[in-house]
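Need S1 RNA binding domain's 3D structure for a figure. Predict it.
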Amino acid sequence: MNNQIGTIQTLEVLRKIDTGYVLEDDILLHNNETDTELEAEQSVKVFIYQDKKGQTVATTQLPAIQIDRYGWAEVVEVLPHLGAFVNIGTTKEILVSKDDLPLFENVWPMIGDKLYVSLGKDRKGRLLALPATEIVFERELFEPAPDDLLNANISGRIYDTDREGSACITEEGYRGFIHHTERKEEPRLGELVKGRVIDVKEDGSINISLRPLKKYSMGEDADMILARLEESNGVIPFSDKSDPEDIRDTFKISKAAFKRALGKLMKERKVEQRDGKTYLVSKQ
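Structure prediction for S1 RNA binding domain:
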């Protein structure tokens, strides 16, 4: 019986009871899990799962997501000690274990994000939602991007994220990679992001930037540096000679972007550099 959990089965109705129906293998179909009146010996197609008490039950709400069948599921609840619960299209919300989520909770999905998952079981036979791996995305969703996609605006959902970068699948099915230098903050798993294509690779995958074009980002970065100076009494221990990693850790931008913004501010005579530091001119 337990091997049916997480699958769709066609079962015979054995008898009607006050709370619903008893199906083959003593599986209970509650009244609130079907909108059709059933009769004994009638066959009915149902999805099999376990309720909170561990009892094997059924629903006539048939999800696309099953054992070894993938689909997008919306996150409906996040509990730090457990993981994220997703809606697979039935009244039963399924857990994505914290063991299958990123190490750092700040990039865990939030309510409303979507994960591409299938169903599996833990050691006790309970249903879990399992996020798809890179191999699954390549096999099931990957579409080679056309060469003329360069510089196009594009949207994608994050399916893998780490310090080096974030992987996403676009709405068209293109696999994209966002290098850590092309994002100000690390996106969440399952988050929908919008960016632009900066490279189309030979294998049909794409590189994406979440940063605005340089002509727009320079002013934005300059404003951020000014705000940091004002918060720091008019001086910051950074200059155009500072270590790139120190700049990225502090400002979430590349050294090249930092130098462009700093150059803009110096040209406008708003800041100056001395002894490896940057000062607000108005503070001198």
